[in-house]
Amino acid sequence: MGDAAFAYPWLMPWIERFFQAWRQGRAPQALLLAGPEGVGKHHLAALLARRWTCAAPPEAGIEPCGQCPACTLDDETAHPDRFELTPQSGTQGIPIDAVRALQADLALSAHGVRRAVVIQPAEAMNRYTANALLKILEEPPQAVLFVLVSDAPGRLLPTILSRTQQWRILPPPIAQAEAWLRAAWQQAGAQAEPAKDPQQAIAAALALHRGAPLAAWRFLSSGKNALRDAFVRDAAECAWRQPIAVASEWTQRLKAQEGDPNGLRFAELFRWYQYWLADLLTIATLGDACANRPERLHFPDAAAQITAVAKRRSPIEWFRIARLATAIAPWVDHPLNTASLCETLWLNYCDGVS
To answer: Which stretches are annotated as coiled coil (predicted)?
Structure first.
């Protein structure tokens, strides 16, 4: 079930902030929605763009009217007053030609009363693309709203940051996120991954995704909870197993996921590995002060196992293992042999805990 099937109540304060400014004639010309993945930034950008291009005044409410010419075009493949800049298929960057084409389109008359431009992820712009966009932002066309979406705002040029109003979209309170996920789970019914204890699965998913509810929901609905449990089991018990055997099993698991667009990839497995090491370091350095507060961990339900493994080495040795993991990080998205990456990961770890 897609994210759009649910409401996002934690975004309402941001929506109300935008509409309050709009009603007062202070609507931002360029917004930067920054924050971790999975908190709804893309949804918020799409909502603001749709409502901005609707002809209804802000006093009419946050929903598009559905009757003006701009709204009747919403089912069209390309809306004439809404533009979206994203990386081209097969690439990771937004080319400068896309901004040049945008500049040419904005030079033409609008179809309706307002236009909107969404750029996501904004960090996909290289220096040349960002400088071309900067020229537009320095002399923006009338009635055009620019919305930049970024998981990594620190990678944007300072000049771009200075031209945007920055909103830091953070995860909602845990209680609100858990309530939203429970409702999503109930609404999805049989489509959600079965679990003996849904509440425990929800808490584990939120901890693993730093409280981001949409990321946690994608995790739960894609069947990765069982893989996460297998990872915890292997990481806790691998001191008594051969690392090559563990790596071979994970290579097979990753290959089995290749046909699924939402399946587990090595980059995500590596992120779990980094979180596990972070939890080991936390308990190794803070001891019972953290072990007795599992909510501080990425794997709170495995606090006992993490504590047992952490005692096998000194904090200095755990830092050394984490530093070796950092050396692997630049290669996690590279199309190398998955088996080789898995072996490197588990050999590094098992050597540390044996």
So the answer is: none
3-state SS, residue 160: helix
pTM: 0.87
**Omega before 300 cis (within 30°)?**
no
Q: Which residue has the tokens 């360029």?
A: 30
| Rounded Cα–Cα distance for residues 235 and 233 (Å) | 6
Residues 6+ apart with CB under 8 A from 6: 180, 183, 184, 187
| CATH 3.30.300 holds for 222-353 | no
Retrieve residue 140's tokens.
Answer: 């923006």
In degrees rounded to 5, what are phi and psi of residue 82?
-125, 130
How is the chain split into domains, by residue range?
A: 3-168, 222-353
pLDDT single digits (tens) 241-281: 688 888 999 999 999 988 888 889 999 999 999 999 999 99
How many CA atoms lie within 13 Å of 301's alpha carbon, on the beta-carbon side? 17
Rounded mean pLDDT, 300-305 = 90
Does the domain spanning 3-168 belong to CATH 2.60.34.10?
no
pLDDT digits (tens, 9 = 90+) for 145-202: 999 999 999 999 999 999 999 999 999 999 999 999 999 888 876 455 555 578 888 9
Q: Are 206 and 26 in contact (CB under 8 A)?
A: no
Query: Which residues are within 8 A (CB) of 26 and not within 5 positions of it... i.e. 6 or more apart?
Result: none
Residues in the chain: 354
| DSSP-based three-state secondary structure for 149 | strand
Question: What's 85's DSSP letter?
Answer: E
Angle between helices 213-221 and 198-208 (to 10 degrees): 120
Half-sphere exposure of 36 (CA within 13 A, CB side): 15
What are 150's strand-pairing partners? 34
